Rieske 2Fe-2S domain-containing protein
Amino acid sequence: MAEYVRNLWYMAAWAEEVPKGGFLARKLLDRGWLIYRCADGGWAMLADRCPHRFAALSKGQRAGDTIHCGYHGLGFDRSGACVHNPFGGEPPAGARVPTLPIVERYGALWFWPGDPALADPASIPDFAFAQGPEHVRGHLSMQASYEYITDNLMDLSHAEFIHRESFGVNGSLLHHGAQQVLTDDSGAIWNNWDITDADPPAWAKPMLPEGARMDQWLHMRWHAPASMALYIGLARAGTDRKEMVVPPMANPHIITPETAGSSHYFYTREPGDAAADMVRRVFKEEDEPMILSVQEGFGGADFWDARPVILPSDAGAIRARRRLMQLRRAEAS
Amino acid sequence: MAEYVRNLWYMAAWAEEVPKGGFLARKLLDRGWLIYRCADGGWAMLADRCPHRFAALSKGQRAGDTIHCGYHGLGFDRSGACVHNPFGGEPPAGARVPTLPIVERYGALWFWPGDPALADPASIPDFAFAQGPEHVRGHLSMQASYEYITDNLMDLSHAEFIHRESFGVNGSLLHHGAQQVLTDDSGAIWNNWDITDADPPAWAKPMLPEGARMDQWLHMRWHAPASMALYIGLARAGTDRKEMVVPPMANPHIITPETAGSSHYFYTREPGDAAADMVRRVFKEEDEPMILSVQEGFGGADFWDARPVILPSDAGAIRARRRLMQLRRAEAS
Amino acid sequence: MAEYVRNLWYMAAWAEEVPKGGFLARKLLDRGWLIYRCADGGWAMLADRCPHRFAALSKGQRAGDTIHCGYHGLGFDRSGACVHNPFGGEPPAGARVPTLPIVERYGALWFWPGDPALADPASIPDFAFAQGPEHVRGHLSMQASYEYITDNLMDLSHAEFIHRESFGVNGSLLHHGAQQVLTDDSGAIWNNWDITDADPPAWAKPMLPEGARMDQWLHMRWHAPASMALYIGLARAGTDRKEMVVPPMANPHIITPETAGSSHYFYTREPGDAAADMVRRVFKEEDEPMILSVQEGFGGADFWDARPVILPSDAGAIRARRRLMQLRRAEAS
C-alpha cells in the first residue's frame, strides 16, 4: 500500500458522475468508497465495507440516505452510524462505517483523507474554468502511478515526440521556448513555457496573416497531490499577447491515486465525437503506454534511489516531487 | 500456504467422480493428489508428484494399480513404492511417493492429512442421507477460503437478502425466528433456526389450508473442518412438527480447501436441469460473489485481528471459527 | 531476480533476426536490451532504458547509429553516450546507457553480461554446423527456467515417453543403450548415449536391409550456461559407424534466460511446413507442458534443497547443474 499525503484535498469524481438517488462506488487511495448526494443536497462518503462481515456496501441498496448491506441487511446513515438491524433491537455496538469529509466545488467532489479538523474547503485549488455546459467533463483510468503521470504533465516537451501527429506539432517548437518555474501564494507550482517570435504550427497558420510569426505560452499549474491546470495561449508575435489568435484555453488534468500503480484522470474536452476520439488517442494510446514504460523502467524502485538523469526541462516536475516528499515526511514525523 | 488442521477427515471427492480404471487428479490443501480405486476395491491416494523430477504423475498413465510417470517412466504402486524403472535393475533408493489414508463412506471419499495412526473412520461425520439415486451429487469450485464459505452457511440470514428471489423468501422470515447454538456428542456444532407460527413463504402457501400459519426449522450441523449438513422442515403451526407440508430435507454442504483462497464445494441436488440451474444461480451467482467481496474486504488480514462486528446471529459461525482455531493451536503446540 | 553467472557468453539472437537498419528489442537476464548492426558492420547492444526518465528506448527511433528516445528525444550512440539533446547545448552529464560486449559468431549474436575485460570470443562454443541455407534458424519462448530446460535436454530418455509418437520411437530403445558422461578441453560436458546392435525404429527400417540391426548414438554437448548441441547418428550394426543410414545430424539447443522463469530457445530445423509443425509439436506441446509441470513441482524451491531422487540417467544433467553452481559461487566470492 502506498504512502499517501493525507492532509490534502483529492478529487473523487465529477459531481455529475454520481447517479441521482443512487451512489457511486470508486476505489480511491487503495480503498473502496461509496459516494452519494443526500436528500438535503449535501454529500456523503462512506467506506465501501460493512463493519459486520466486510462485504462491499456497494453490493447493497440505498433507501433514502441509508445504505443497506446486501449480505445481512444492516443499514448505515450518512454519518456511518448503524441505524438498522433486520433482527430488530439496538444497532450492534461498534458497527460504524468510516466516513471522509467531502465537498462539491467547481462541479467536482473533493475529499480529505486526513485529519477532518484540518479540512478547509478554502484550500481546494481553483478549477472554476472547468464548469459550464461548453465543456464535457470526463474520467478515465490509467494503470500508472499518479507521480509518473505528474512527471509527464509537468514536462510538456514530451508532446513534441509522442503527440507530434495528434497535435500537429513540428517536433522542436517547445525546445526553443523559455522555461520558468514559479510558485504562487496558493501553494501552486507553475511550469511555464513561453515561445516568442516563432513560426506558427500548421494548424494556426490559417488564422494568421501570411508569413506572420507568433508567441505561444503553455503554463502548467500544479497543486499537491496531482491536481493540475494547463493554460494555453497563442498570439501574434510582438503584440503583448493581446492579439490572440484563438481564445485562451484552460484544461484540468486532475489525477487521483486509485492504488499505488493506478490512477483516476479527470479532464474536460470539447463536445463531439472528434474530441472524444482525440482524448482516447492522446491519453490512452500515446501517454499511457509511455508512462507504463517509465513505471516498468523504475521497476518499483524509489525515484531518487534510481538516480534518473535530471534535465533542466524537469525543473517543474522535480519541484513537485520534492514538495510531495516534504509533505510526506512532515506527516510521518 | 495456509495452516490447516491436519488430524481431521476431509472430503476429497464423491466416489463416483473417479473414472473407472483411471484416476482423479485434484488439488487439496495446496498439493496435487491422485486418487484411484484399486483392483481389490480399495482406494489409493498418492501425491501427484514424481519424486524423481517432480513432474505431475497425473500427466502419466495407469497400468493395473501402478502409476507410471509420463516423463521418464518410473512406476509407483498404491503404497507409493517405486516398482518399475525402465532402465531396469533395482528401483532407485528413496523413490517413494507420499500417500494419505483414504476411505469411502456415504458415497464420498475421505482423506486424513495428519498422523495416519490417528485416522479412525468412525469419526467421519454422518452423511448417509446424501446417498441414493434420488440425489445428484455435485462438485463445484469457489474462489474463496473455506472459512468464509463456512461463515456464509452458518448464518443463513443471508438468504433473506442474496437468495430472496431464487428462494422466493420474503426478506424477514428468519429474523423472527429463535436461534439456538448447540454442540452434540459427535463434536458437531449446530446452528438452529426455529420459526414458529409465521405466515408461510409464497411457495408453501398452496400446500396449506387458506390462512394457515406454519412452523419452519433450518438446522445447520457443522463438523470440523467445514463439513456441514442442513436439515430443513416445514409443518403446520402448532402441530408439534408432525404435520409436515413437505418431506424433511437434508443437504450436504461439504467444503474442502483447495488452497488458502479456493475451495471444493460438495453438494447434492434433485435431478433435472431446473435444479442444476438453481445450484449454479445460488452458489455461483449469488453466494460466491458476496463471499469474494468479504474475502477482499478482509484483504488477507487475520479474521480476529480485523475486528469485525459480531452480531448474535453470528453465534454458530463464531463458535465454528473458535473450534478450528483451538484445533490449530493444539496441533501447533 | 535470478542469480546468473555473469562471465559467460550467452546467445542473444540469430543475427538474421535483427531487422536491417532497425533494431531488435529483447529481454535477456531480466532486463530489456536493444541490439543493432552499425553502419560499419559491427554490433551494438544497449540497455533498453533511457537514463533520463527510464522509458524503453525501443519505443523510440533509430537514426544512423543513434537511438533517439521516443519520450523526450535524447539520442545515444553505440557506446551508450548521449550525443543529442533536443534542447541544445551539452549532452546532460551522466546520461549514459549501459552497453554489453556483443559479437557475431556462427550466425548467432553472443553477449557477455560480466566483466568486459574477460570477454574473449575464443570461448564461444562451436556452433559452426548451425550455419548455412540448408537450415532454418528459429527462436521460441518457453515459460520455464533455463535450468529445467537443460535437465530435459541432458536426459534424452524423456523422448521415449513424451515424444514417442512424434519421433516414432518404441518406448525402450534408449534404456538399453550405454550412457557415458565426459568433459572435454573446451569445458563442455557430454552426455552420450550409444545404442548397439538394436532393432531399428520404425522410421529407419526402410533404409536398412530386411532384418538388419543398427547402432545409434545421441551425444549431447553442454556449455555453460545452457548452450547445447545434439549430435545424432545411425549406422548398420557392427560397421564401426561407417555405414551410416542417414547423414549425421547436429542440432543446436541454445537456451538463454529471459527471466528466472522464462527462456529463449534457439534451434534449427529443416525447411518446410512439416518441420515447422514438428518443432511446434515437440517443443511447445510436448516438452514445455512437462517442463512447466516440473517447475511447478519444485514450487520455487532450490533444486538441491528439494532433494529430488537422482537416477544414473541424470548424470549429465547433474554434472551441468553442479558446474553452474560452482561458477555462481566462484563469482559470488
